[in-house]
Amino acid sequence: MIKWIIRIGWSSLAVFLLLFVVLVIHIYMVMGPSNMKYHNSNPMQLSRIDFEGPRNDSLLQLAEGIVRKTEAVRHTFLNKAHGSLVYGYRPGEVNPKAVFAKIEDLPNRPKMYVVNQEQLASGCPVLDKSSLSYRLGAFIQSFF
Looking at residue 131, what DSSP letter applies? Predict the structure, then answer.
């Protein structure tokens, strides 16, 4: 009976280690140095504009339309509930201040979102450094 328990324990450990190795190899193949040229070949930068004035749907959609028609702006997302407009563009092709200048005279008082020094120092504002996924990724990345 004890032999079976030991076999099951070793088998479980072997399967776990095998799956972990497969995960590490997968992450390395997807994010490894040989694939970085594909990830950075078409970089996209995001900028945000907040609207402090009245949240009139037609004014918000007008601002989104103006930003969307701007050369080099690839994507726009309008959040009417929070009064913010996020747009993606290729850096170097357009300046976010030039995009903002096109809509700054609208009556809903647009304001460029600028990150503070604390957010700028943290890198990615979305990633929580105390999360399990961040720690696992940092652990695996430390090998490469």
Answer: S
CB-based contacts of 106, cutoff 8 Å, min separation 6: 59, 62, 63
Burial of 49 (0-12, 13-18, 19+ CB in 10 A): buried
pTM: 0.60
What residues contact residue 90 under an 8 Å CB cut-off, 6+ apart? 42, 43, 44, 45, 72, 74
Helix (H) or strand (E) holding 18: helix 2-31
Cα 20–chain centre separation: 26
- 41-64 pLDDT, tens per residue? 677 888 999 988 777 888 889 999
